[in-house]
Amino acid sequence: MKLAGQLGRIVAALAVLAASACVARAEEANDYPTAARAEYVYGCMKANGESRQSIEQCSCSIDVVASIVPYERYVTAETALSMSQVRGNLGVQFRTSEQANAAVNDLRRAQAEAEVRCF
């Protein structure tokens, strides 16, 4: 009887631990601010047509990206992409930075995965 009671408590504790890990992962995947998600969907829709289907596909796409790339890394990649278009020395710094290129590559891989899953 004692062993069964202890096993029951262990199983219950493991269930609570697993549930909290799932919640933590969901919160990590949802750390993108609403404005950032909306901006991504807006840009995606401009590139893929402004239809109901594109809303659903682009919303799916940002969810996939958010599940793969942490928000801070996303901001780094977006900044690098934006600043790399600037002419002159400032733009060169962003085009040649290993850290910026790595963040951009991470974002592009996540977007490719989103393309496969959502479009």
TrEMBL record:
Keywords for the protein's UniProt record, in alphabetical order: Signal
Signal peptide coordinates: 1-26
Taxonomic superkingdom: Bacteria
Signal among keywords: yes
Name listed for the protein in its UniProt record: Lipoprotein
The species this protein was found in: Bradyrhizobium vignae
